[in-house]
């Protein structure tokens, strides 16, 4: 069995969190130490750490850091201050529900504690639990995902739903990491993922590190590539899945799902149970983050669009459930009818 050759993107070090700086990849493999609540908030907003599960894990550790930094002995005041830190972290990015899911777990543990010291210990334990569970979850997603892909398959993906976007292995990329361990040949086509290029900077880098056969294309080449390279399946991650299966993921995902339907190939979403938001009946009401216009008008510090051009920069889109062949979770594979099957699957 070959060892997964990618670094952990998040590590807990008692006084600080160490993250892989995903802004610098692939040119530099740099690790950053986050000591304060503000460091953690900034790392999430600026995409130094990104990907739904990784955001949740980092925020959970951030809440633990913030609690540990408090010099407050009066328990009700301590609780109020930690809650404030949790709300602050929750305001960092709006779409990935894993952020709120992880912070809710942290808040529950906080409220259930009875002293300041007990709360501090419990918060660290809960954040570590969230991290460790995610590694196991992603491995399971990988196993189920791999069971859907015939050896020799050519598979397209977008964004980076990989090991560095989770505790380890990833969601959409987990089957590829496991295929290396199990010696099963698969070929991946990675869309570069404009505007901030998670596909070229992160997925291409991660899969190459792991020894996966990966080919990079621009987003506009997807239709031609599916046709001429005989792509067998598309697999993507998710930031939030509504109760009816509508799925928010990196902008461009919806377009790939439409292409999958046109070409008659399966379109799979891979995500942990923590990415489902059963409080939302449909994807229509998933909040879609709009990011700063410089992500589109500039590459690095170089302007590539006219001054003052109007810009629309949604970071995510919502793929309607009827375009999704199956949703792969750590508990198994969900097929339509999603309205009926998701609830049953998630509450297993
Ligand atoms: C396992 S990560 C799943 C999703 O979070 C991923 O596909 C994605 O869209 C990430 O967007 P990002 O803006 O890079 O955080």
Automatic annotation (TrEMBL):
Taxonomy, superkingdom: Bacteria
Pathway participation: Amino-acid biosynthesis; L-methionine biosynthesis via salvage pathway; L-methionine from S-methyl-5-thio-alpha-D-ribose 1-phosphate: step 1/6
UniProt keyword annotations, A-Z: Amino-acid biosynthesis, Isomerase, Methionine biosynthesis
Keyword Ribonucleoprotein (UniProt): no
Active site: 239 (proton donor)
Pfam families associated with the record: IF-2B
EC numbers for this chain: 5.3.1.23
Family that this chain belongs to: Belongs to the EIF-2B alpha/beta/delta subunits family. MtnA subfamily.
Function summary: Catalyzes the interconversion of methylthioribose-1-phosphate (MTR-1-P) into methylthioribulose-1-phosphate (MTRu-1-P).
Protein name: Methylthioribose-1-phosphate isomerase
Organism: Peribacillus deserti
